[in-house]
Amino acid sequence: EAHAWAQEQPSAHADETGWKEGRRRPWLWVLVTSAVTIFLLRPRKKSSARELLGQFAGVLHTDRWGSYNIYGGRRQICWAHLLRDFASMTEFRGPAAGRIGRDLLKKGRRMFRLWAKVRDGTWDRVRFHETTTRLRAEIERSLREGAECPHRKMRNVCRRILRFAGDLWTFTVEEGVEPTNNAAERAIRPAVLWRRKSFGTQSERGSRFVERMLTVRATLRQQGRNVIGYIADVCDCSLNTQPLPSLLPVK
């Protein structure tokens, strides 16, 4: 029920991280929406990304990992990842590579300074879009220059980024869309800490428990509901063969 609800939302954040199930190495996938977060433990395959997204047709926030390329709708590529790439470019050897990297990092940071004005309510999204039109052209011009740079790594990174040129700027025109995928990364962090302490799971049954409890915890915290109280209600309803309480937000 929660997974179906998440697929109907106008935007969502997706991410994944490694896991351990006995001798198997599944991946923990997460889909974060405004009021529901879904976790699945599945192999790191495109079919798993397809299962996670289901019928979702909104704006999808992701990094540039290839499995998400199965999604045919609108995307927003994470700018936090891009900024880290730009910072790495500044350390590339060679005058052209370093200069292009510094230029991209400077412009990327300027974009975030302008976005802060939208976040604090100083600017509306229309003004932000108009102001960043020139900045977008400058960044894409630098990326094209980098894509022709003699430095092999610079050339490859810029070419990979340019493949997603149309998905870098969705947040400038779509309400409710952020430039980063931080929501998914924050949601998955407690799971990473759990994995490190418990060394993963030992069976498929344990993996189902993990993905369901992570879903319950994250979703109820989003909605400001009591996690322990909900679990107690589930146990009570189950023991008395009554309908289980819903994870969906209360209208």
Structure description:
The chain has 251 residues and is an alpha/beta fold. The protein contains nine helices and five strands, in the order H-E-E-E-H-E-E-H-H-H-H-H-H-H. The chain has helices at residues 2-7, 46-53, 79-89, 95-119, 125-147, 152-162, 182-198, 204-223, 227-239, and strands spanning 11-18, 27-32, 37-42, 59-62, 75-77. A five-stranded mixed sheet has the order 3-2-1-4-5, sandwiched between helices. A hairpin with an 8-residue loop joins strand 1 (11-18) and strand 2 (27-32). Helix 3 (79-89) packs antiparallel against helix 4 (95-119) and helix 5 (125-147) packs antiparallel against helix 6 (152-162). It is globular, with a radius of gyration of 21 Å. It starts with a helix and ends in a 12-residue tail after the last helix.
Write the layout of secondary structure elements.
Layout: H1 2-7, E1 11-18, E2 27-32, E3 37-42, H2 46-53, E4 59-62, E5 75-77, H3 79-89, H4 95-119, H5 125-147, H6 152-162, H7 182-198, H8 204-223, H9 227-239
Helix pairs in contact: 3-4, 4-5, 5-6
Keyphrases for this structure?
about 250 residues, alpha/beta, 5-stranded mixed sheet, 9 helices, about 55% helix
